[in-house]
């Protein structure tokens, strides 16, 4: 079961941090071969890999989901779940609308105008895990911000089941989120299709959404051909707790991530040894009740720990070193300590803010940086789907004023043509 580590055990902590990488050995070459085949053979390769990996025999004409299939999905879903999906969509949209930024322009007294033009991407690909599973929340979290940003074409790919069909909840969520095109394709082959295009799928400008290690490596390989959001790794939660924390809550929140897969990480940092013991007992009790307990037990045993620190301050510093995907502050007065947090994908404050609230309904995005990348990555957001262009309009007076400085800087870099592009204008203006 889960181990208890003393904060003085530097090797134990190092192993815990290192263990989040997920292991990519031997997979990259397989992914590269898949990508190359899709790039060269298009739909035929895409259908072949779909048959091989998903067990679904599809023709190129069957790759794109029809309106009729989506209409049928609406008749198959539970109406109360549909109501909850719409509520989640609306809250996600409202939150992300607050992130919108506007183009700006600044005019100087001499007539020079400088500014920044902010425009949405034209076409974005969204990857949603699928097959036998259903992840409508991932659909909403990727597609809704893209539409808020103004992306005109949002394209979704997700692997089909062996019967060639997609989960009805995934399809319904896609329509509710405003997805424009849906294709039955998953894995590295779907990423290749989005990046390079096939006879059926037009290439996109950016690919977002989490997937397994094949998807993650494929996204890394196409970066530069297209943009990507981030390289997602196994799910993780880190709970900072003091004596006021409810051990039942802490254990439940840790298991909410441990049940994802065997590589998931659930860590508790506390300076109260007694609390750690109570949490361990609760983990034993609660994991036995989970349908996915085998996955959770392996994640707890191999990639998780209860860490005993010397103080709450030390717990918070260690939390920053982890830079976790999800960080929970199960402490008295959590807002008092929020300013100490520098690195986290999402921060959950207090006993009434469990991590699943953020996964589904709160409004902030659940596509978050993992594996310590919260040190430099941000959650998926509206800016993910925007790009910025600089605007420069120099006046005649300002070019005369600053031109000599530009010439000097160009010449010191040995770029005479750069200097000349300014010099010829200054000469021309002096003759006027």
From TrEMBL:
Catalytic activity reads: L-histidinol + 2 NAD(+) + H2O = L-histidine + 2 NADH + 3 H(+)
PROSITE patterns tied to this protein: HISOL_DEHYDROGENASE
Name the enzyme group at the top EC level: oxidoreductase
Pathway where this protein functions:
Amino-acid biosynthesis; L-histidine biosynthesis; L-histidine from 5-phospho-alpha-D-ribose 1-diphosphate: step 9/9
- What does the UniProt cofactor note say? Binds 1 zinc ion per subunit.
Check the record and name the Gene3D superfamilies matching this protein: 1.20.5.1300, Nitrogenase molybdenum iron protein domain
Keywords linked to the UniProt accession: Amino-acid biosynthesis, Histidine biosynthesis, Metal-binding, NAD, Oxidoreductase, Zinc
What's the protein called, per UniProt? Answer: Histidinol dehydrogenase
């Amino acid at each position: 079961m889960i181990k208890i580590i003393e904060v003085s055990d530097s090797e134990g902590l190092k192993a815990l941090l290192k263990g989040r990488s997920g292991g990519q050995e031997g997979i990259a070459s397989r992914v590269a071969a898949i990508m190359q085949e899709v790039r060269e053979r298009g739909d035929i390769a895409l259908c072949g890999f779909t048959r091989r990996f998903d067990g679904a025999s599809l023709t190129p004409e069957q790759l794109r989901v029809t309106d009729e299939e989506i209409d049928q999905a609406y008749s198959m879903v539970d109406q109360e779940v549909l109501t909850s999906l719409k509520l989640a969509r609306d809250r996600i949209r409202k939150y992300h609308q607050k992130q919108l930024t506007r183009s700006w322009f600044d005019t100087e007294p001499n007539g020079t105008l400088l500014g920044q033009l902010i425009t949405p991407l034209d076409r974005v690909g969204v990857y949603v895990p699928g097959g036998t599973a259903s992840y409508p929340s991932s659909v909403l979290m990727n597609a809704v911000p893209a539409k808020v940003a103004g992306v005109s074409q949002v394209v979704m790919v997700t692997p089909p089941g062996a019967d060639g069909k997609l989960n009805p909840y995934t399809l319904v969520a896609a329509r509710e989120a405003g997805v424009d095109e849906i294709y039955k394709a998953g894995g590295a082959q779907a990423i290749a299709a989005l990046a390079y295009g096939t006879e059926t799928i037009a290439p996109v400008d950016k690919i977002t959404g989490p997937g397994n290690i094949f998807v993650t490596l494929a996204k890394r390989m196409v970066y530069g051909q297209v943009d990507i959001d981030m390289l997602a790794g196994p799910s993780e939660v880190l709970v900072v707790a003091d004596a006021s924390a409810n051990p039942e809550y802490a254990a439940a929140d840790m298991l909410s991530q441990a049940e994802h897969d065997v590589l998931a990480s659930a860590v508790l940092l506390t300076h109260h040894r007694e609390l750690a013991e109570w949490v361990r007992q609760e983990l034993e009790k609660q994991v036995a009740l989970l349908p996915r307990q085998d996955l959770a037990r392996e994640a707890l045993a191999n990639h998780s720990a209860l860490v005993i620190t010397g103080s709450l301050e030390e717990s918070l510093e260690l939390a920053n070193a982890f830079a976790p995907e999800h960080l929970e502050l199960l402490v008295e007065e959590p807002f008092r300590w929020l300013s100490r947090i520098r690195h986290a994908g999402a921060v959950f404050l207090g006993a009434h803010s469990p991590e699943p609230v953020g996964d589904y309904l709160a409004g902030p995005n659940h596509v978050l940086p993992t594996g310590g990348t919260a040190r430099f990555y941000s959650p998926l957001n509206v800016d993910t789907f925007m790009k910025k262009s600089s605007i420069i309009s120099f006046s005649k007076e300002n070019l005369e004023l600053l031109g000599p400085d530009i010439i000097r800087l160009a010449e010191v870099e040995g770029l005479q043509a750069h200097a000349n592009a300014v010099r010829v204008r200054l000469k021309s203006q002096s003759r006027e």
